[in-house]
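Sample entry as discussed:
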Amino acid sequence: MGEWDWLGLAAAAAAAFVVTVGLCGILRRAHEWAQVRDLGDERRRLLPPGSLGWPLIGNMWAFLRAFKSSDPDSFVASFIRRFGRIGIYRSFMFGSPTVMVTIPETCKQVLMDDEHFVPGWPKATLELIGKKSFIGITPEEHRRLRKLTAAPINGYDALSTYLTFIEKTVISSLDKWAEMGEIEFLTEIRRLTFRIIMHIFLSLEDDNVMESLERVYSALNYGIRAMAINIPGFAYCRALKARKILVAVLQSILDKRRAMRAKEHSQKAKDMMDALIEVEDENGKRLDDEEIIDTLIMYLNAGHESSGHITMWATTFLQENHKCFVKAKAEQEEIRRNIPPTQNGLTLKEFREMKYLSKVIDETLRIVNISFLAFRQATSDVIVNGYLIPKGWKVQAWYRNVHMDPEVYYNPKTFNPDRWDGLVPKAGTFLPFGGGSRLCPGNDLAKLEISVFLHYFLLGFKLERVNPQCKVRYLPHPRPTDNCLAKVIKLSIS
């Protein structure tokens, strides 16, 4: 092939590239126009800067690419780089035009304003967690459900009751793992937290039943943040089938409980399901079956997934940071020395005395960001930070960006529990359990589980990871790709 032929091919390739780029630009502009055309010129001018991305997929490709890489923060960072740190950007996420709020001030306004912002979770999350759970109901229904479930979930008597079983299960699990050699530490902790939450919910302790239920729940969980594509082979499709099985199991247990309670009118509540059946509002109205089941599934997500992952990360962070480990262990040794000889195990009094351990957990929650964003929807046109969020648009509050912002936290990627010494976080700066009236109602139970585990781990065990530098996967939750393959080693205590 002659020189002119090579030049001709190069020119043709360059022309094709230019045409492709031009077509891509036209497609993106057409998508932008289609989403904002009904707003009118004046409202369009007030929109926050940003990009709605490609037709149909919007910014999801960039989002997934970032969260499947080693740098999930690059997604929001790309908006900051292009448009400045203004804390509010327009995008197109999960099939809807969306405004992302990413700094404490804008997050605070969205999370605290129940009048103008209601839950706006993606279809997949809403369908899988449940339309009658906390995430899918109106503010009035939310207040009622939160009031009814507060005592059975986070009340003093409830937590005191749960503590005994949590403690017993943690002790036996640690001893068992120490005899097993190499284990997937995260997998075993998830089984532990699942066992605890199933006992709290249903007084269920059958290993075979729990193992099968955990597999079903895991399939459901993987679809919660997926696109709502109900086609075989997709995560959402598998998750819908898993939810159907889980609901059927819970409904069967609920039917039996109601029948038993009808026969034995004075039957005492023995677990959370009994408590939810029994509780009533000031008008004597009780929760219906769908409310009870959706509430249990929502708490299963919080009490199993979040607690399991944070426990694993807190353990590894402590093991990797010797000074923090020594300080945390000294606190737990002091607590153990002060337990009266006549007292069996921990009480909530000791839990409240775990001040440094509480900072360890808060720092883990900040860095790991299990719930890295929240979803809202604007009920009317709202001005935030000088920009318009149009009525009906989705809003994402990016907790992760707040927690990893160097202007909010010095050296944000460094594990440093001491940063919490004397620090009372300003509103909008610390959001591991959300914010406003929709603050996660199971946060006390979650911290109790994590604290009890760390107490006993620090006093008698150490963790040796097989692949301490292995990569981290960030969806649906941050976790090592090897599920933290490690040995749990029991220490001889003098």
Summary: The chain has one domain: 46-490.
